[in-house]
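[Solved] Which block belongs to which protein?

Original post:
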Amino acid sequence: MFCASSVTRAPVLHGRDTELDALRHLIEGAAAGAGGALLLVGAPGTGKSAMLDAAAARAASFPGAPPAGSAPEREAPGRTPGGEVSGTTPGRKVSTTAPERESPGTGPERQDGFVVLRTRGTRMEGRLPYAGLHALLRPVADRLTALPPSQAAVLGQALELGTAGDGLALPAAVLNLLLAVGRPVLVCADDVHLLDRPSREALFFAARRLEGEPIALLLTADDAPGGAPFDTSGDGSGGASPELPADVATIVLGGLTEEAARQVIDDLAPPGLTGDLRASLAHAACGNPLALRELVGSLTAEQLRGTAAPPEHPPPGGRLWRAHAARIARLPRAAADLVLLVAADPALDTVTLLRAADPRRAPAVPHRGGPREDSPHKDGPRKGGPRPAPREARRQDAERALAALEAAERAGVVVRLDGDRYGFRDPLVRAVAYGEAPAAGRRAAHLRLAALLDRDHQRLRRAWHRAVALDGPAERLADELVEELSRIPDGAAGGRDGFPEPFRVMERAAELTARGDTRAARLAAAARHAWHAGLPQRARSLLNRLNLLSSLTLSEEVRGRAELVRGSLELRSGRTGNACDELLAAAEWLLDRDREQAVRALVRASEASYMAGDTHRFLDITRRAATLRSPDDPPATRLMFEYLAGMAATFRGRHREAAAPLRRVVELAPSVDNPSVLVWACVSSLLLGDDAQALTLSTRAIETARAQGAVSTVPQVLEFLIQAELWLGRYSSMAANAMEGLRLAQETGRLNSAAQHLAWLSLAAAVEGDEEACRIRAGSAIELADAHGLGIASAISGWALAHLDVAAGRHASAAGRLRAVARADGTGGHLVIRVMATPHFVEAAARTGDVGHARAALAVLDRWVASTGSPDRLALAARCHALLAGPGEAEERFRHALDLHHRGSCAFETARTQLLFGSALRRNRRPGAAREHLHGALETFERYGARLWAEQARGELRASGEAPPSRGPGGRVRGAGTAAVETGAGGMGAVGMGAPETGAVEPAGAAAIQALTAQQLQIARLVAGGATNREVAARLYLSPRTVEHHLRNVFSRLGIRSRVDLVRLLS
């Protein structure tokens, strides 16, 4: 086989299903004698060459491809009936007669597959005419003899001597040579924008004449503004043309989706990569596949262990860095100056940028290698001659600067952004523009900007630029940085538009500080800011730098602050016991020096014991905190004290006593804007039974956290938003928010929050009756809970498995699981979850005859629900009493429970009571009365997609002597309402958990997408992002078989047949 490159197998390309489908259609069309051309355009590193490799691998092994010339005979496009090529000069004919085919037994042996010919443009050979064709056609040069003599002579002269006459003889000869191969041909021309002009024109000529021919032409080119990557200068210098071959289909390769980037990282990285490191790499790469490869390859052992900060951009000197550096190096001097200024401060508006470019305002920015040839001052200052007036000179300077900016924009280095400013499409371009400039140039740029920024309204940015321009300690400037940062409202200082985040400002202040104690305090503050920003690995690296300072020289206050950050990190991602110890030590050190931070440390220590399920230690901490109260405390501190008092009373079972401090927590919430403090108001609302208020507060806490850049707080808030949705019966929204919380927790390194979200997801799966998903998720949550001492996550998972057991009729198993949940010693149980799970325990215990334990558990539940006045909670308690009552009393108790349910909000629990009541009536030989309740229960369970509960209802209906309603194609009762769309208060929309109908339907739109269950929608989005079934299963903690089952239902529900259709529909 002739092939310009040997291809053994196609590369794995994640997130490129749509593009690969286009390549497949192109190759299949050429194999069938209906060829065509396709142009792939993208930034460096987006995988254009990898797409060519994939196409070449597919074509080389394509089965049963017909030989060239076997397509049905018809007039080829671009040819006149007389054989002239369309567009030739009248009177000048170029033969386009198809070349003679080899007779059997001569020439190369025929095989399956295509002939694959490849060439690649390079800047060096872009100045050599016909160099691209020479590389492309060498493997088939022996077929020149099959061409008409005139064409063979023209093409041979071009390939051997690099010369050829004008006109269409040579392009026609190239096309005919490809036809003379005798088999289907795939032509791959990489970096076509760097090819010499004659080669490029010949390929474009062929591209327009492939219909009806067994030839596929695949081209790639770098992107450029306006979609104009082509060099028309004829020398490969990269001048851009505004004209693309309009009649050649074009696909623009953008960045990979988040899920596809995750898959690339997982393919390349060693096992055990943490979620926050994976998220950092994906963020730094901006979806660029080559950037991902280079970032993973650059990881050090310390970065892999999590003790050093992750890389922020691909390594200098790598392929991607060099590609961008070469583009910047070709800019004119004035454009390069402006690009450096934009890199130094991407928040610059255009007016300030032009002022900074004025050579009269500051010294010129130095460049490597001295003045450039295009510099107006390369021969020194101008001497003599008339000078323009100052105003006219400034206007001319501004015009020159704007022209320079336009040159940088045309080169694809900068882009015009909203708000009259310039920036970078890719953060790596900014890193290259800044990193490639000499140190003196960077310092001059920062000093120039510091001198121009407003002294009153841009004080922090001015201080930052002055700080970056310095090398050694500068105590006064460091103090100024800290002071100015403290003036900025939370969330308003950093991370936007590339401006430094607060942790960078504090880190720079520490570097400029010589005093050891102050330097350490600022490193601790930087670590705290990094932690709040969801960068735990960066925070740990800053704490490690702090550890290098001698602890003997540090004050107790500084050690306390550092220990508070360290304990907070451990609280979110480590063992709760260790976190509690570290936070108590921090409180001890801070008590006499920073009382508010000491109280915060105690509250977090109590949270550690709460998460562990260690009631005794929790009460010890609350007793200690109670001695610290002061009437002068600010609102946030008072709120924390009231929360601890209310929780202490709750844990002692004194719920009426707990109500007053818990209400004061809610009352104080409007005066607090710290999302990590607002969380306690959410908890207080839940304990008071006010689920709507809990939703409102959690929504506000989430919005505040995002506005302040404290994204790492969002997973914690979602834990309590989910509990409110659980009480309200909004299970699909609960599942969607739990999935979002799991994603954010993994990305921000909050493993302990991830365990809780996994546990809540297992409970959502239990409601739906998905046994496999429930067990996988609960097992993963319990494994993480056992490793980190998370009694609450373990208890939620046990409750989920018990729910599954009760739904399946395994009451003894459920009762055993829930007894373990009741432990309050930090060994896998949790008091709060035990109370929430009491209705399931009473049901399971009553069915197994364990009435004594059921009554004891119910007494605890009674005390709590009576203090709340919540109809939903009171209804559950009334149902429990009905289950334990005698035959004469039970009916009255059930009716009272249903009355309470109808005043509440949870339709699902109403159905559960209807099912139990109907079952009791049937057993008491009242089948007619039973059916009314059983029908209502079945309809609700079907609407929720609660398969096991629906089966129970059907079984009871059959036992009552009535056949249950027939089931629809997807398992839905005929006539049952579809699930309503739910929207969580956290702003994450979800849909009802009804089972999808199957059967072929027409392609659907937004309405059908909304009818998917929350889990189906998650699976659909991941698959549309390029994930395989196995990858989706790993991400959602499901089995591949479950994913395949859900995906079949998704396809049927949406009326589609392929993943490509799914991508198009969801896009």
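(Second protein starts here: sequence line, then its structure tokens.)
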Amino acid sequence: MNFRGYGNRLIAGAVLGILLLAVYLFLTLVSEEASLQGEKAFILPEGFEMTEAVLPGLLSYPMFASFDDSGNLFVFESSGHTDGTQEILDRPDFRILLLRDLDGDGVFDHRTVYADSLPFPMGGTFFQGSLYVTAVPDLLNFTDTDGDGVAEEKEILLSGWKLNHNAAILSGPFMGPDGWLYMADARRGFDITTNEGKQLSGKGARIWRCLPDGSRLESFAGGGFDNAVELAFTPSGEVFGTMTYFVDPQGGYRDALMHWVEGGVFPKPNPVIEEDGLVLTGDLMPVMSKMARVSPSGLVRYEGDFWGEGFEGNLFHAQFNTGRIVRSVVEETGASFASNDTYFLESKAADFHPTDVLQDGDGSLLVVNTGGWFIAGCPLSRTAKPDIQGSIFRIRKKAARPVADPYGNEQAWDQLAIPSLVDALSVPGPFIRKRAQEAILQQGIAAVPHLLARLTAYPDAEVRTQLVFLLYRLGVLEGLEVAAKDPSDSVRAAYARVVGLAPWTSAQATLVGLLEDASLSVVRQAATALGRLGKEGVSAALLSVLERSEDRYVRHAVIFSLWQLGEVPVLREALRHAQAGVRTGALIALEQVTHAALTQPELLAFLTSEAEEDRKAGRWVLGRHLDWSALALPLFRQVTTEGLTELQGLFRVFSGQEVFQRGFEQVLTASKEDELRELYLELLQGASVRPFPERWKPILGQWMQTGSQALRSQTLDFVLTGSLTGMEAYLLDMADPTSPFSLRVRALQALAREGYRPPAEELRDLMDGLVQEAEGKEMTQAIQLLGRMELDDASLLYLSEAILPRLEDRYVPYMLPLFEGQVSEQLGGSLLAFLVSKPTLMDKLSEDQVAQLFSGELPGLEDQVAGLLSQIRRQREERLARLHDLEERLIPGDVLAGRNVFYGEAGCGDCHAVSGEGAVFGPDLSNIGEIRSRHDLLEAVVYPSASFAREYESVEVRTASGAWLGIIKEKDAGELVLEIGPGVFRRIAEESILEIRESEQSLMPAGWEERLTLGQISDLMAFLQSLPDGIGAVR
């Protein structure tokens, strides 16, 4: 059969297809109201529709899916359990289903259990009759030998990855066009013995690849990110992927769409990068497209023209948190890519959680919705809902033409001549091409003359690219150099990729020629290949690339290959090159080859250079030489705002060195201007020096006594947040009753850590200050201080009778923990009388908190306590109605006015940041309008304790000396760090902790609907909904 005309004959049988389609649409529309809760549950672009793709009852909790060659669908399914990691390993109960569409109507209607008793299978790929699956700790191969839809054979190809029940684990594999299996891994650790006997162990995240038999396992890329999820490939072999945590949430971002490249070390910064010995080529590699906390998952690159112009080559990816499928139009920029991202599918259903998206043979997309079972580590899902099962939907373009034989099932592939198989490589869509590729590979060496002949003559560049990979997979590289002169960038890049993978040392001269290619992607791939060849004599040619290009991806490939080649004399000579790009590239490569190769005088030349590019590279290298503090100290004599961040990194490196501490003492002493001193405080704050050098403390004490009001306040904050000891004399001066209330409270907080308790009259004065002077942040700090004071019965009774009735309702829930464990009958009666008299408090109190408050023996008060708890329950039940009423009364808001409310009257910026402006105590809100509905936002403002963002849950930590409410920031070296207020940290020895329990009480004050006017709330909602676009962009 001649496949050159195959693409034009895909409409064969179109009349019958249209009739079947009409029947199908009628049936699906009848059921759509029940299954999708009406069309309004989902939003698609004009001209597209979504229907169910699986017969009800066949699925429970699908996570990922993958096709075999014939159009049958493997579904990797969860059991719906949210057990811990060890439980999953001990009792693995996940499975793989095989779904078939027996009547060809586009709905899968038959299933078998292909494999079961698996620990978290995270996807797979079908190749030459077998299904390759990652199910940590293993990479597995399953084979159904008799065609009954059940795998009889199971082979462990590789093992040694680490499982975690939050699904941040190894996923895939994904077959690249080069015939290698690629896998996306998480920062969980690994300890693998390869098939060749090599031991690979580490802690960081990786992108892995190996051959289908498990051999030649190698790390393709890595870094400090939390979790790479899925991968997709361009025809020339470029690797795209979804990933979580390229940065801890800030600036509205956390997750990313990636362009992975060989040897790349990607963000976020993490100690595992150094611990694993990953080779750095400068700063961590960039991400392709930044996302909010959306938890991106499944990914597919769209192939073919089924949906018309503009869709081929697009990436579609699933977002678990937002219920969206995002369309990314990818464009080449330099040696990498950029994407323009838009929402393709949006869901209004709260428990719609898409985890995978894949392309079917007719060009439609399948969307896997996992349902409501998964919560482990998920930022926006706190309660498992196993009653809400998953589903798979199909998105079609309504005007798309029916496709005849989309999987090539009607073709006798083993009987087709090689020219026809080559023609089949041009057919749109993934299935025909894949089957043609595998049929050619089955032909073996007999196919080679035909492939080489077509490599220069075939008119379709994408087919020629496939031919390059097929020849490589057949083990034939002789004669392939013609591809290096191909007019297509894709073909030339594919050539460079495969000769590097082989590795084919005879290609060295050709690759050197490609270093001058007009396409930077080809240059990058040629540089990468030269490093893989490992043949000396090309370092000078690689360095010359740095004269011509500043592209980050090109520089990475060149420097990484220079490291692989390790030609130290050439690199040392290049340190004196006239062009800064060459000098700095050589410097970084030389430093990575071996620390001993670089000398202090050589580095000093960069640190003192007139060229900023030199100085920046010099500082980067200096930060990797702990013993060169003498070179670092001069950099800190004059700090600027612009250079502060970079110097903080260096400061962290050297501040623990005694010689550096002595020198920096002189630097601090010599500083005379308060503005410079404030910068030094920022430097110290960002560097987190522990233990804090004793020789620096008197200098800070002097600043607290003689500095400006701003410097005194900033220094006090540093003493407080850094838990500095030995500062009592300076703090007592600031705790004087004549000091401003804010300074006084913070000074007393610091003193309380050392066991200081103010005299009774000063303590009473402090309590009165809660009403007279405290507001917002100061109120929070004052309440925290009182919690440290071990108040006696008289003080507690005074708080209950004289202070609580005069406080705004929003502060009362944060005062009540002061009384826990100390409620006598008299005090209990006083508290009950107050609480019962304040019906407006009922929806601001948690039932758990009040029950804990009155948990002691209180004869005669039991009925009153029960009545109060009943009243709180009733108010909670009425909360939704009140929230709905408020939402209905909102008026069109003004974004700019809402911003002013956010940073002004509401004080949201004291705890939250938007695009870097504000504090980081609470969740970053830069993209909040993109991931939360107006209803959710309003609920968070009015009833902040109704839900919590992951990573910001409130906990109560109890010790023998007191209790603290806050957010756990870290656990390190037997110590728990609790943030109890914006920038206020409490370090608690783990051995002193009696109990840690989740609190139902948010650290965010409630009652804003009473404090703000309806207009202000409307404006605030408008501002939050406008994010991330901001002013003037209300949706």
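Accepted answer:
You had them paired correctly. Confirming on the second one: The radius of gyration is 32 Å.
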